[in-house]
Write a structure and sequence with these properties.
about 475 residues, mainly alpha
Length: about 475
């Protein structure tokens, strides 16, 4: 964090050399203070936000490693010990792999160390929810150490291992998207059946119509702006997406599917459709313009630079959010839900009388009894302060004393896969241009085809989730 804060000072060597160390210390202290403030909320939520923020910063830093400015500043920072740019050839590929490998190694080590942690009563849980200053220093140390590993290692790592990890991350995200679609629709239906609520019925129907409207609107826009004559790739991708969208919508309301899964319907299909249509639109709008099929690229230099920067930041924000959600959503991975990750035995509780937080009325009764005891002189006056601390202190912050909200090791494994995806997205089929200040993120045919194929895979996963109970009724049973 401190190193990032000190990057602008590198333009002034004399000032940067004096302030870099202080900025690094202040960066770690600042982040620790911020995370401590987050402790006023649920500790598990604050932890997830903090790790997502670290991934966001690391991703942006690795993106900057593709630019001539960042590469030259990196050479200057190492006192020309590392010659990254030689003539007209700059090796941004290796720099990106180094930065992401450093964070990936950090998460992999945490995944191993936190294996088997089931509640915050485990002393190792503090490594997950606390020690933010040391953890940030360790992360930055790993990033620095990666620059001393030979370049040949990253050529092999990025070409094979990181690529496989990236594909696993994409597949995991698609599975969780389908699971989210089913969970959302089933949750709304349960509310409607339990309370006969018009509000929930309106939400379900309204969101379904809105998502279908957005899907068809994006399809029309793509046909108008990205499917001109000669743009056969775009025409095929848009048409296939539209046809499959209609097919899965029909399957979701087919009588056979409804018989084995009455909760299946257009609500789930709409969510899958709008996401896959978005992926297709993102693919055609981010492809290169060598065939004059992407009008978004043919803009002024200032507009194009702003578009690249905004696109990169939005992409990294999306990855950070998706990673955090995937890492804590265990339903599709075999978990029973966020509040049922681990079953704690009776012996692990501090008492065997109650297993829930005391209600507000009970706390009021306790406070009244303490006040009476203080007035009678049985207890000192500071007993009331101690009671406030016990009610609003550790128990109010720690929401994982009875069991963790998510699997810590799986959480870090998914973050590890996210670093491989970021590295692959930034470096696959990269065309380095020294004349540009910033490198566009994902503006390659490879990235476009990954999104197009991902949409098709997402449709396939959702379609199988509908057909599987019909084809294999003995395995799935009736819902």
């Amino acid at each position: 964090m401190g190193a990032l804060l000190s990057l602008p000072l590198l333009a002034l060597p004399s000032v940067g050399s004096l302030v870099t160390f202080a900025a690094s210390c202040c960066g770690a202290a600042t982040c620790s203070a911020v995370c401590s403030a987050c402790g006023k909320f649920q500790s598990s939520m604050a932890t997830r936000i903090a790790f997502a923020f670290i991934l966001l910063i690391n991703s942006i830093l690795s993106w900057l490693m593709l630019t001539p400015w960042a590469l030259k500043k990196l050479e200057h920072l190492t006192m020309d010990y590392m010659s990254i740019c030689e003539g007209t050839s700059c090796y941004g590929y290796v720099a990106v792999q180094r930065v992401n490998f450093g964070l990936g190694l950090f998460h992999f080590i945490l995944a191993v160390v936190l294996l088997g942690v089931k509640s915050s009563k485990d002393t190792r849980a503090g490594l997950q929810n606390g020690y933010w200053g040391p953890k940030i220093i360790l992360w930055l140390a790993f990033v620095v150490l990666t620059f001393f590993i030979p370049e040949a290692f990253y050529q092999v790592w990025g070409r094979y291992f990181a690529f496989i990890g990236a594909m696993l991350f994409v597949l995991l995200g698609l599975i969780l998207l389908v699971d989210l679609a089913h969970t959302y629709a089933e949750f709304c239906l349960e509310k409607i059946e339990a309370h006969d609520s018009r509000a929930w019925r309106f939400l379900l129907i309204g969101s379904t119509l809105s998502m279908y409207t957005a899907s068809f609107a994006m399809t029309i826009i793509m046909y108008i702006f990205f499917a001109h004559s000669g743009c056969s790739m775009n025409q095929a991708a848009i048409t296939v997406n539209l046809i499959v969208l209609l097919i899965i919508s029909f399957i979701s309301i087919h009588p056979s599917v409804q018989e084995f899964n009455p909760k299946a319907g257009l609500a789930q299909a709409a969510m899958v459709a709008v996401y896959c249509t978005y992926l297709t639109m993102s693919a055609v709008s981010m492809e290169p313009d060598d065939r004059n099929c992407n009008p978004l690229i043919r803009t002024g230099r200032g507009t194009r630079t702003a578009s690249i920067v905004i696109g990169a930041v939005v992409t990294m924000l999306t990855i950070a959010y998706t990673t955090t959600r995937a890492a804590t959503q265990g339903i599709a991975l075999g978990s029973r839900g966020s509040h049922a990750y681990s079953k704690i035995g009776d012996e692990d509780y501090e008492h065997g009388l109650v297993d829930q937080q005391p209600s507000a009325s009970r706390r009021e009764m306790r406070a009244e009894a303490l006040r009476a005891a203080v007035e009678a002189g049985s207890l000192p006056a500071n007993a009331l302060d101690d009671d406030d601390d016990s009610d609003d202190g550790k128990d109010a912050v720690d929401d994982e004393r009875g069991g963790t909200q998510y699997n810590y090791s799986l959480f870090h494994i998914i973050f590890f896969l996210a670093t491989t995806w970021v590295a692959t997205l930034l470096t696959q089929n990269i065309e380095f241009d020294e004349s540009k200040d910033f490198a566009p993120v994902g503006r390659t045919y490879w990235a476009s085809w990954v999104k197009i194929v991902s949409a098709w895979v997402c449709y396939t996963i959702y379609g199988w989730s509908l057909i599987a109970p019909v084809v294999l009724p003995e395995r799935f049973g009736h819902y």
